[in-house]
Design goal:
single chain; 10 helices; eight-stranded mixed beta sheet; two-stranded parallel sheet
Amino acid sequence: MSLKAIMETVLVVGSTGNIGVSAVTAALRSKRNVLAVVRNQSSADKLVKLIGSSKGITFAEANVLSDSGIKGVVEQVREGKLPAFQHVFSSVGGEYTTTPLPEITTAQLRSNFNVSFEANFFAYRDTIGYLLEQKNPATTWTICTGSQGDLATHPVPAMTQGALFPMTTAAARENESTTVRFNEIYLGYRVEIDELAEQHGVTKSSDFANVYELLLADPNVRSSRVRVDDLDDLKKLKYQKKF
């Protein structure tokens, strides 16, 4: 591992969620530092407990659901109050519920679109300019989406995931010839933090972290959808250009 890689930092948006914990784990295992966006000190403490240590992690408190939350974090980075970052991983998710369409309230609908779509959009909109300014060909921007956007067995997350698909394609197109390597990880099954995963018989966050580790390490994967459909996909990247 080069000194350059050791000094790199990954900004993780949604860092305390099932997928966010995977991203933090992957970044640390690949000898990178993490700038974790958290809601408050309680969320920071939760992440430390899940990871097992605070070593290599800097915390930035912000409301990612606000259209100024991530923008404020980037401003602090520019001012030198927070460490510079070369990679972004975003995975902010809402309810994983089977509520039928006729029973979804307006408040529930709007809340979930704010959490699962808008927060990820804000993360992209307000960090991509900073990455492009670096003119560093090693920079990456990664988002994790899910197969509910196609399957729709859970209507609420299905609608919000579906809305992310064209956004990721647009971002992939816009960065095809830039220095930022944009990719989407499309997850086809349930991943949870290790303790809950063992209880529920699903994939552990620490195992899913392998995918992001592989993606960070492979400069040939860009503007692509990386599919994770079964356990074999945790060991070798399966990807295809998004357009």
